[in-house]
Amino acid sequence: MTGNGAAPVSAASGWARLAGRHPLLAWLDAALRGSGQVIFMDNPLTGLLNFVALCWGAFAGGTTLAVAIGAVVGNLVSTAAAYPLRADRAALRRGLCGFNGLLVGAGIPTFLAHTPLMWLLLVFAAAGSTVVTLAIGRWFDARKLPGLTFPFVLTTWLVLLAAYRLPGLPIAALPPAELASQASAGGGLASIDAFIRAALRGVAQVFFVDNPVSGAIFLLALAVESRWCAALAAFGAAAATACALAMGADANVVAHGLWSYSAVLTAPAIGCVFLKPGPRSLLYGAAATLFTVIVQGATATFAGTLGIPALTFPFVLTTWLFLLAWRGLGTDAGQ
Amino acid sequence: MTGNGAAPVSAASGWARLAGRHPLLAWLDAALRGSGQVIFMDNPLTGLLNFVALCWGAFAGGTTLAVAIGAVVGNLVSTAAAYPLRADRAALRRGLCGFNGLLVGAGIPTFLAHTPLMWLLLVFAAAGSTVVTLAIGRWFDARKLPGLTFPFVLTTWLVLLAAYRLPGLPIAALPPAELASQASAGGGLASIDAFIRAALRGVAQVFFVDNPVSGAIFLLALAVESRWCAALAAFGAAAATACALAMGADANVVAHGLWSYSAVLTAPAIGCVFLKPGPRSLLYGAAATLFTVIVQGATATFAGTLGIPALTFPFVLTTWLFLLAWRGLGTDAGQ
Amino acid sequence: MTGNGAAPVSAASGWARLAGRHPLLAWLDAALRGSGQVIFMDNPLTGLLNFVALCWGAFAGGTTLAVAIGAVVGNLVSTAAAYPLRADRAALRRGLCGFNGLLVGAGIPTFLAHTPLMWLLLVFAAAGSTVVTLAIGRWFDARKLPGLTFPFVLTTWLVLLAAYRLPGLPIAALPPAELASQASAGGGLASIDAFIRAALRGVAQVFFVDNPVSGAIFLLALAVESRWCAALAAFGAAAATACALAMGADANVVAHGLWSYSAVLTAPAIGCVFLKPGPRSLLYGAAATLFTVIVQGATATFAGTLGIPALTFPFVLTTWLFLLAWRGLGTDAGQ
Questions:
Q1: Is B191 on the interface with A (CB under 8 A)?
Q2: Which residue ranges form the domains of chain A, and what is each CATH number?
Q3: Were both Cys, which of A297, C115, C236, C272 would link to C263 (CB 3.0–4.6 Å)?
Q4: Of C187, C175, C98, C188, whose CA–CA distance to C134 is shortest?
Q5: Can you tell me the ipTM of this complex?
Q6: Which family does it belong to (chains A, B, C) (predicted)?
Q7: Is the CA virtual torsion B305, B137, B132, C146 positive or negative?
Q8: How far is B331 from chain A (nearest CA, A)?
Q9: Intervals of chain C under pLDDT 70
Q10: Chains contacting chain C through 3 or more C-beta pairs under 8 A
């Protein structure tokens, strides 16, 4: 620890002591860590900065206030639901029962109209995501495989698919369901500046925010806890953006970060979070990042046929495959 | 046991003694219990009453004689197939190898035209459902998770999807495959009477019967073995019907019980069959019932894109998730 | 061993000795065995003959040279990728890390245009199929269930679905995505000769080759190691062809072997490879063969909605179900 790191460290340990004493503060602490866990960080400060980035997006454009509020509500509700469901207390305290609910809470107001019924459903779905989190955790127990953001993906997909049959939940911004047909050639990004903004938007899209400044704040939030992770997330965003462009993907979609947000999570997940960091895991993480781009396109086609977004399923599938294939998983897994 | 319960009890034990002596009667007993197991009851009288309800539907409208015959054939064939497949004898005797075949046998004539080839396929598919039942049983072994009606869902989906490519199996009544688009507002049910009939039809739709009287007989069949289960099934039907209406679902579809039949199974499954009954399991079962309504809409959209019905997949998925998430599953599971 | 088998046997053991000494030859040997493992044979001569059949198809029509080259490249790359991924050495030597890559390498040039980017992607996807192979292997570990060709199916599906969004990978020959609608009656095959050619094409279609002579060579390649397997593969092809015709499938599709290629694999898999051969396994294999035909139609409808081919998923799903349902799997499994 360097000298100029001392102040936040003592503030952090002060907060940890406080949170240990009051149940309500413990809940808040778990929720803040849950916000951090979206990007693998068990750190309340990361969670706070993520929230700042969400608010920036709501203020400066790229998302709405309802999304930021939904994220907070989803996080608090899903964390609270973990208590009566008797989740493992250590996991709960580390925020592992909140990050899927946060994403459910951000996702639903992104795609559905902001009616009172939507808010009611958001609360129910956030609590439901905790059930899914515990179910997946049990299912993967023996294999020491993390559930990642799959509970968020499954819960949100179910809600959005159901909305098509429920006029009480008007759809605001879902891609219309359509049969696959090959797109025509997609142009490119005009400048290095446009490329950097596309990559930063990719980082922000993890939280449904379409804003490069928010992306930079999310990277900062990562760096607070781990500079390696921040570097790998930035690498994932840049590599996926470049890769998608090289294969002719629609430049407009790439510019909004929609080809890279899953890779933003895969690169650190394989490169330094779940495997012991080192040259082998870095190379393996780079391969997983490219694989994620293929799965991103595949999921977009599959989900597009059904009229729903890909969400972070490409990250989930790729990371599960690459973790399972890794010899020695369970002995050197980080989380 | 009250005094007026003595006669059926002694009749039941007489039947059990008889069934223990003759292999053919043992097979019949297993099939009757298989009929009961569709609604979780290891009771031949429940099975008999279920058959009465099916016949009533065929006689009074709401289903056809072919569906009732298909159910009996499917039940007998799938139970018989369990012997050469060397299924666990205790499970076989309790009817656990027959209820999926019964549903396959009821489902195929509901959706395909009644040709000789259809009947041949029905026999083959019913036997196939026993293979799927044993496969799922093995797969879930270590987790003490029940296969529920998934073998029925998978087998029937495979047959119906295949029929699209097989003109020798003319489709009689499948929803045309269509891309998802949000329905417009759906009206409501005119009266409390219409509501009750919708809920009772939901109970009957578990067996593909669209008739409220049949629904009442199915509830009676449940009550023969467990009044709790009957009450929870009725609750599931009513809650799902109300919930679907509140979210604007098409009132015509709701009136035929097609938004509630899965919840009819989820509510007792979570509330009193697979978890130890009590206030916690009841609350949990109520949450699972609401969750089932969302999954019902989602599955209808997904399956509708492929041109197939949702069947009881919403019940299966929800019950698996809620059972897996329950801390202590395997120590207090009922079945 | 009969007298006239002595020469190939000593040649084979000479080759095995040679392969044991040089790493490069060990790699070639593993790749040849990988080619044989597509049809379950741990035999380099089978692998060589399979390659001859592929070349015959490229020369005489029924496939292209690019498919034959892609198969070789995919096989070599995926086998090579197994070394740094630290695959189990025994499995690697038996070719179990190469057969999925071979099929990925044959499949991609069958469906996508032959551009430099396609070749780059082919190499990456072949290596990716090794990751999927190891992941599935780990996942199925405890159940002693083989991964079969699922890694090939998943990897190829992902690449093809992604191609719809990537104009840099022009689609050459994918079925257009379309909603299911029942086909009209399909005619029949004109003669017994046409029937035999359809069945032989079914054998060849396992390797994406639409040529009856190649089918005969693939059967010969099987017979080199196991006449039982060759007979069962031929039975699977004939039974599935007859069965599809009896149910009214489009005769033109049947004539190209597209209703039978999965059954070509299921019949030997259940009949003699993974279960102890005997009258029970043969009967069971026959049932599995018919089941495969239903799954073939179902997968074609499902995948057709998404604009992708069924590949060998029907074989994979059926074989998994029938193996899991078999009492005693793991004690008498062959592989």
A1: no
A2: 15-173 (1.10.3430.10), 191-335 (1.10.3430.10)
A3: C236
A4: C98
A5: 0.93
A6: Belongs to the urea transporter family.
A7: positive
A8: 14
A9: 1-9, 186, 328-335
A10: A, B
